[in-house]
């Protein structure tokens, strides 16, 4: 398909965990218009995290209007729009009315621990890993769909009758943009489907045996498409604009880095922290606690797979220091506060607020601050919070190198936290590797735009996209190996103390 010549821009909708944003990009991949709106984090009880899908729908309309106004662009000037989303967050809604049957269950939510434990009794936590690439964990979408079917009155019967449907946030957004109850498209892409525990990595389709095991009716699920293809045309917010890209946020960030070669790696620092390594057209099954996932699929080409290390809490820890403790007034102040001390003062912060994800996969873990003495100040707490993100990244990258058999030459980074120069220096020190920030740090939205633009011929090839990646800054390690490994050993001792905290009968052990 060839882009209409007067359509000079591409837009992306980045539907994140704490906010949604719309960015308009020009042909060089530079952002020219931006709008962002936060949505509520609903916390009904310990371990539960929810979003209001109707609030997210309303935010999409607001950010589209805001970004187009900021760019001085009208919808007819857009060649395409791409979608990227917080993955695993699950919405179930009425096909006829478009109303959700309950709040969305967010990826961080741990209420499905009982379902996962039940499924793991036969074959253990890794019983589905060979087929899905995933451990049985509360993180993924399938158990969340099962929980809604089992616990919201009447929904299972309505699902079996074909009256309610489900999807991740990309599916919810595309369905609404293309007409909702009046002919809306019910689709997702391979990257989001690969996060459900219902999807076969080899066939790239929903798996009937997995659906039966999870007790999820196939009729509820969206059609699975490539990450870069024209799905349909928007009728709401962006009338007449082709919707042509759809990737989970971390895969979109890899795409935005033009990480198209086997061995390319990136780490995104957002609410959580997510490292991806391109392993090429063949899935690599992890022996060290990582996820095997679909990285992307361009229409007409084979799927590309990744190893992923998923960390639940990164930027969310800074928000916790701000909102729960009042230690800082804005998130940006954490760097200033952390710079008031030369080191962590012996303090280690393990933010296992929702258990530990990769490489541990322990839903029984809970957060800990270790090493406190009277010497410790709020500056030490701030620095320990930044170091927590860096040490968690070290753990997953060590596992990644062990699985792939290939050491990393450097680490490309993106996400909101990469504005924090101190954190980036700490990350280089912790890894003993160069850390590289690109000129455009909104890499997740850029990846969705790239996928959409590629599908409509706005960009000619992946080689063209690769040529647009430009380095902004590079941090080199400044500490020696002995100090690095001493600090890492202390971090691992702190992690060990978070385990086995939640026991049966605890409030959030459901």
Name the strands of the widest sheet in spatial order.
17-18-16-15-21-22-23
Oligomer: single chain
Counting DSSP E segments of at least 2 residues, the number of strands comes to 23
Averaged pLDDT: 92
Summing up helix and strand content along with how strands pair, one would put the structural category as alpha+beta
Can you put this structure into words, describing what you see?
This protein has 510 residues and is an alpha+beta fold. It is built from 16 helices and 23 strands. It has a seven-stranded mixed β-sheet. It has a six-stranded mixed β-sheet with strand order 3-2-1-5-14-13, with helices on both faces. A two-stranded antiparallel ribbon has the order 4-7. The longest helix is centred in the C-terminal third of the chain and has 27 residues. The chain is globular, with a radius of gyration of 22 Å. The N terminus is likely disordered.
TL;DR?
This protein has helices at residues 53-71, 113-120, 129-132, 141-151, 155-160, 169-177, 190-193, 208-214, 249-256, 315-323, 333-338, 378-404, 421-431, 443-455, 462-466, 481-496, and strands at 9-15, 19-25, 31-38, 50-51, 78-85, 90-94, 104-105, 164-168, 187-189, 199-200, 205-206, 223-225, 228-233, 242-248, 265-269, 273-280, 291-296, 304-311, 348-350, 368-370, 411-414, 435-438, 471-475. It is an alpha+beta fold and 510 residues long.
């Amino acid at each position: 398909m060839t882009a209409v010549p007067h359509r000079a821009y591409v837009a992306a909708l980045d539907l994140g965990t704490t906010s949604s944003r719309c960015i308009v990009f020009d042909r060089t991949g530079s952002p020219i218009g931006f709008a962002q709106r936060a949505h509520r984090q609903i916390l009904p009880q310990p371990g539960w995290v929810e979003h209001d899908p109707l609030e997210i729908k309303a935010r999409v309309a607001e950010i589209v209007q805001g970004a187009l106004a900021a760019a001085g662009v009208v919808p007819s000037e857009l060649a395409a729009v791409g979608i990227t989303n917080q993955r695993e967050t699950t919405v179930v809604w009425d096909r006829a009315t478009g109303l959700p049957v309950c709040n969305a269950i967010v990826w961080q939510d741990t209420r499905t621990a009982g379902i996962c434990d039940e499924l793991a009794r036969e074959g253990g936590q890794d019983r589905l890993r060979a087929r899905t690439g995933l451990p049985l964990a509360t993180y993924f979408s399938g158990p969340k769909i099962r929980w809604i079917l089992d616990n919201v009155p009447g929904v299972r019967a309505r699902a079996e009758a074909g009256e309610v449907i489900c999807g991740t946030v990309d599916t919810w957004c595309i369905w609404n943009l293309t007409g909702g109850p009046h002919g809306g498209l019910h689709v997702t892409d391979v990257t989001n489907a690969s996060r459900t525990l219902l999807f076969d990595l080899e066939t790239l389709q929903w798996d009937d045996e997995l659906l039966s095991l999870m007790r999820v009716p196939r009729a509820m699920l969206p059609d699975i498409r490539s990450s870069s293809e024209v799905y349909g045309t928007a009728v709401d917010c962006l009338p007449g604009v082709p919707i042509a890209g759809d990737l989970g946020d971390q895969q979109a960030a890899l795409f935005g880095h033009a990480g198209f070669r086997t061995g390319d790696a990136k780490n995104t620092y957002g609410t959580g922290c997510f490292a991806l390594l391109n392993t090429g057209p063949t899935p690599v099954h992890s022996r060290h606690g990582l996820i095997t996932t679909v990285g992307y699929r361009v229409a007409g080409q084979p799927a590309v797979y990744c190893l992923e290390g998923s960390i639940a809490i990164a930027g969310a820890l800074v928000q916790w220091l701000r909102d729960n403790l009042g230690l800082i007034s804005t998130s940006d102040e954490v760097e200033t506060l952390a710079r008031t001390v030369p080191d962590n003062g012996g303090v280690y912060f393990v933010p296992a607020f929702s258990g530990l994800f990769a490489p541990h996969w322990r839903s029984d873990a809970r957060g800990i601050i270790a090493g406190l003495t009277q010497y410790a100040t709020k500056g030490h707490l701030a620095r320990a919070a930044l170091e927590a993100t860096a040490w968690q990244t070290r753990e997953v990258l060590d596992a990644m190198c062990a699985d792939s058999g290939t050491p990393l030459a450097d680490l490309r980074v993106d996400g909101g936290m990469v504005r924090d120069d101190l954190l980036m220096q700490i990350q280089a020190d912790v890894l003993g590797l160069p850390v590289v920030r690109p000129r455009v740090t909104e890499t997740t939205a850029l990846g969705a735009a790239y996928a959409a633009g590629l599908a409509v011929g706005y960009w000619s090839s992946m080689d063209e996209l690769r040529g647009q990646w430009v380095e902004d800054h590079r941090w080199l390690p400044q500490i020696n190996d002995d100090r690095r490994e001493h600090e890492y050993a202390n971090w691992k001792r702190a992690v060990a103390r978070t385990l086995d905290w939640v026991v049966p009968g605890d409030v959030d052990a459901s």
